[in-house]
């Protein structure tokens, strides 16, 4: 988890740097992407910048999710995963996953809008049945942990 946290921030810094460079040296970026300098090419570049900006929004969301996952792993290591905090953490992770799915759909929509025969763009973004299933399952898992916590507290109270 700690490695993922670091890689998340490194990836975000690289995307931010690349985004900034597209403004500093637009001509080179357009040449590297084989985009013409006509109105269609400029619209494509602006769309790519928008996609990068939305991608940057995912960085803090990923960070919040990874930090919560790390805390859950720590409680599992300690031998007490069924605590109320983990139920709240899982619930928060589910909301973060929901936000990431919405971001993916927005990015996919922008990609579809700027893609053309002259400038084709193929992104691994958009609607993902598996992604949405993970959102639902994480909400369910959060509820399971909440119930497990209550059962554990009841058991400890009877002993």
Could you list some keywords that capture this structure?
single chain, 159 residues, mainly alpha, 5 helices, elongated
Structure in words:
This protein has 159 residues and is mostly helical. It has one domain. The protein contains five helices and no strands. It is elongated and about 75 Å long. The model has no long low-confidence stretch (mean pLDDT 89).
Shape: elongated
Low-confidence stretches: none
Number of strands: 0
The structural class is: mainly alpha
- The percent of residues in helical segments reads over 70%
Q: Give me the strand/helix succession.
A: HHHHH
Distance between the termini: 36 Å
Report the sheet-strand fraction: under 5%
How many independent structural domains?
1
User: In angstroms, what is the radius of gyration?
Assistant: 21 Å
Mean pLDDT: 89
Q: Count of helical segments?
A: 5
Q: Biggest sheet, open or closed, and with what strands and sense?
A: none
